[in-house]
Task: structure prediction
Amino acid sequence: MAKVYPNAVVPQTHQPISVATNGPLVLTVWKKSLLFNCYGFTVFDPNGDLVFRVDNYTAGTKAEIVLMDASGHSLLTIRRKRLSLLDNWVVYDGDTTSNPLFTVTKNVSLLNTKSLAHVSSTGSKTKRVIYEIEGSYTQRCCSVYDDKRQCVAEIKRKEAVGGVTFGGDVFRLLVQPEIDPTVAMALVVVLDQMFM
Result:
């Protein structure tokens, strides 16, 4: 039987994950926390090493979620925007909650039914869409497109050797060199909050 968490040893130093230049980085995402009685995500690289984790002690939609590296250092803080008519999430660098990096807004338009959400920059007065997310998150079949309509990340079901598929809690995140793997994983966390 295939293992979901091959190497559970946590490195003691913070090293950013790098994307291969010749193809996508394939991460295995497990919708389970390594901590007992917690909710979250555990993410492994192709070598089976722990890369990212999200640990939350409460069920349901959270107001604030922290994406951490393998050793528990905060990489991004994801907060639900309060008092908003739309389902908006704001992503900040590290533990800070000032100067957001980008926002993710759930699509509510009836005209564009393929689009799940769009990611907008927050630096200037005019918000610019930097990524568009299409597909079905509940079916684990999504694509993230940049502003040039190039696919920069994909969420796909994970299959074990022999064609046996895992449940919906284990899936692959394919990250192209054009997007930071930390940003791609943050988008997965936000999609999970929007659609689960």
About this structure: Residues 59 and 124 are 35 Å apart (CA to CA).
